[in-house]
Amino acid sequence: MGGKSLTQLPGRSELAKALRYMLAPWPALTRAFDDGRIALNNNAAERALHGVAVGRKNYLFAGSDLGAERAAAFYTLIVTAKLNRLDPEAYLRDVLTRIADHPAKRLADLLPWNWTSSPAAARPAGPSPSGYEACEGGVRVLAYFGV
């Protein structure tokens, strides 16, 4: 788009600069039309971060850097459980009661996208939340775990 028009303009003209500025992100913008899973906005990410933004003043008092890292790990687990349509409270209750006796080599079994428990703990199936790509077994949020 605009390629022919751009070649007909002097390279340093303001209009040529404006066209180059507009065309630079064009491939990324049109990718959303090629793949229906890509959201046109970041509303899902904004909603996911709303709770963190509301409580930001309280998080200053995590006690230490380690306390803040542990809080971040729990927030990540809670959001990932929600994205995988699990009840976060039921998920954490089940995992925390099982983890002490669970083999260390199989800890990945307890991550939200691999976790299986009673049907009461799972939410009804529905579409994946907008703005997140589903993977085999569920939706992953890997900001903290780096998996």
Automatic annotation (TrEMBL):
All copies of domain Transposase IS66 central, residue ranges: 6-69
Transposase IS66 C-terminal domain residues: 76-113
Family matches, as InterPro entries: IS66_C, Transposase-related, Transposase_IS66_central
Cross-referenced Pfam families: DDE_Tnp_IS66 (PF03050), DDE_Tnp_IS66_C (PF13817)
Superkingdom, taxonomy of origin: Bacteria
Name this protein carries in UniProt: Transposase
Biological classification of the source: Bacteria, Pseudomonadati, Pseudomonadota, Alphaproteobacteria, Hyphomicrobiales
